[in-house]
Design a protein that fits this description.
Layout lengths: L14 H4 L9 H14 L7 H17 L3 H33 L1
């Protein structure tokens, strides 16, 4: 019986038909590599808010796949960024309260 009789296409579609010929589309490692190639070809503008948020999303996805020391380093980097943002907001609030009350 052919694969088409079971509802499966005979030929792979998308990246597996173009760049990853011969790799099994059901293999998780091949799927991860195809996703990596898709991210490498995506060239969004980093000069817009949407582009910057996409970069943050890519960093978060990468950090979620990490294990061990690299994951700890990613957590430390995110914590330092959040502490910097909190410090900046606190200083801005103190400045505005001092400017309006004095």
């Amino acid at each position: 019986m052919s694969r088409a009789e079971h509802g499966e296409p005979d030929e792979p579609a998308g990246r597996f038909a173009d760049d990853l010929i011969g790799l099994d589309p059901q293999d998780p490692e091949a799927q991860a590599f195809a996703a990596h190639l898709d991210r490498m070809q995506h060239c969004g503008s980093r000069a817009t808010v949407e582009g910057m948020l996409q970069g943050v999303g890519d960093f978060a996805q990468s950090a979620n796949r990490l294990r061990g020391e690299r994951r700890l380093l990613a957590v430390v980097v995110v914590t330092l960024i959040l502490l910097g943002v909190a410090f900046t907001i606190w200083n801005a609030l103190v400045f505005m309260v001092a400017a309006f009350s004095g």
